[in-house]
Amino acid sequence: MSDVSARDLSVVLDGRTVLSGVGLQVRGGDWLAVIGANGAGKSTLLKAVAGVLPYSGEVLIDGTPVRRLKPRERARLLAYAPQSPALPADMTVFDYALLGRTPYIPYLGRESRHDRDVTASVLDRLDLAPFADRTLGHLSGGERQRVVLARALAQQAPVLLLDEPTTALDLGHQQQVLELVDRLRLADGLTVVTTLHDLSVAGQYADSMMLISGGRVAASGAPADVLTEKLIDTHFGARVRVATGPDGRPGVHLERP
Amino acid sequence: MTDPSGSTTTPRAPVRRSAGLRPVALLVTVAVLLASMAAGVLVGAAGIEPAKVMLQLLDWLPLVSADSGLTPVEQGVLMELRLPRVLLGAVVGGLLAVAGASYQGVFRNPLADPYLLGAAAGAGLTTTVVVVFLKGDNESMVVPAAAFAGAVGGVLLAYALGNVAGRGGGTTTLVLAGVAVTSFLTAVQTFVQQLGIEELQRIYAWILGTVDGGWERITLVIPYAAVSVAALLLHGRLLDVLSVGDDEAVSLGLNAARVRLVVLLAASLATAAAVAVSGLIGFVGIVVPHAVRRLAGGSYRIVLPLSLLGGAAFLVLADVLARTVLAPAELPIGVVTAFVGAPFFVAVLRLTKRVET
Hints:
The complex is a heterodimer.
Chain A: E1 4-13, E2 16-26, E3 31-36, H1 42-50, E4 56-61, E5 64-65, H2 71-77, E6 78-81, H3 93-98, H4 113-125, H5 141-154, E7 159-163, H6 171-188, E8 191-195, H7 199-205, E9 208-213, E10 216-221, H8 223-226, H9 229-236, E11 240-244, E12 250-254
Parallel strand pairs in A: 3-8, 3-9, 6-7, 7-8
Antiparallel strand pairs in A: 1-2, 1-4, 4-5, 9-10, 11-12
Helix pairs in contact in A: 4-5, 5-6
Chain B: H1 23-42, H2 50-60, H3 72-107, H4 119-134, H5 139-166, H6 171-195, H7 200-208, H8 214-234, H9 236-242, H10 246-251, H11 256-278, H12 284-296, H13 300-324, H14 333-351
Helix pairs in contact in B: 1-3, 1-13, 3-8, 3-11, 3-12, 3-13, 4-5, 4-6, 4-7, 5-6, 5-11, 8-11, 9-13, 12-13, 12-14, 13-14
């Protein structure tokens, strides 16, 4: 299990400060949900941690600064799935998932039998084996999300960064995908960081939450500490009622003003 | 650290499908290429009997002896006209198709072709300058070098402009820079052409393209072809990684910008080499890779090698038509590639209807 932390993370894009002074701390095997209004900087935070965007500050995995790692070494520790991944319509599911093995394949080399085996077993685990030969253009929304997850898992990284893994999925498929992530997390001891726009959903799955507003951390802690009526009103401009469910997790309900 | 894929347990149903090129597809494409080259050698204006041509070809093989009964003149036609023409057609067609496929991969744009970044306009300009100002002195020696330099120069200009304008090196800026460079160089070319309007026919003869260049053109193009094709074929898997987007490619540990630059350089070298020995032959670079994608699969590990072979076959066949349809007159080969290529492409599209996303 790998701890993930960040210190004083700032990102400047086109001269605009998108993130500033963000710190985070996730214990190995935990699930951190990053929430915030549109444009608050959630995706930027995930991209910075993934090493996709240049940042100032420090991202650490088990205490090692990610900056000091070679890109391929970093990719073996951090797997990242963007909010709307490009899925080439004529690529097969197997080939797509196999791309997750890139950090283990030499620059101009080809994948080994082991890479194929890992990919095959990941597909098997996500019940995607029957789809292995199908092209990405022929998948439903829920299947696609699972395929993206398969690509990330094939990376065999202990940290999974998922940007809005349930966008564009209906309620049932949202639940399926998140349950799947949770199952994999518990089985393999993965550390999971997701952005989630649905606050109730986030509250159900996360061990800890972080609220980002205007590129800064507005609140962080246990779901019950972050999902409060006051914070949601201040940072989302939404009127909600927060009710604690039987499992002690907060549920967020919209209220007509 | 635990193993997130669970690969420590043996997979239950080993799936081993992979991006790799299937032998059947490779064999079929090689067969098509050989058949088209045979057609290219057998068919021609001189009307030599095909059976005799076969015997003569056998006779030329080492350790084989066969009496074809061809006259020395007919043998000369075969050796000095048809054979080099078929080979040059194959090399140029292969180069343009593989370069087109690579450009499409780098720009993630199905409409990208090898001339996208100004290679055609650059070569057109330098060729025109040479024809207008040299007035025929050493033209056949100088034009290939000039066209090569022009093609490379056009691409470099677009690349430099794209970097200055884009800062981040984004592909959209690069494409736009290519459009600007192409327009500018074409304008200059038109201007130079007006200065030497009496040379118009010869300018067009160079620009429209032919694969009738003899052995010297083949020896000229081979080194560049070998280097660029080898580099491109090695990058097939990395182009697949790029196809899922830059962010993901970077998160997979790949230096996306560097891969793109290397592939662009190699593809531009291939284009410049082709343009230098054959002029501007359109359509091959777009049609062939897409036909391959439709028929054999979308991975660049399939698309690149099969485009190379398929492009070769396509251009050899186009040349057969170019020199037989109006025989003994010849059509410009670029006219044939578009005239035959467009309906062929529509047929492929119809045969392989797919859900587009």
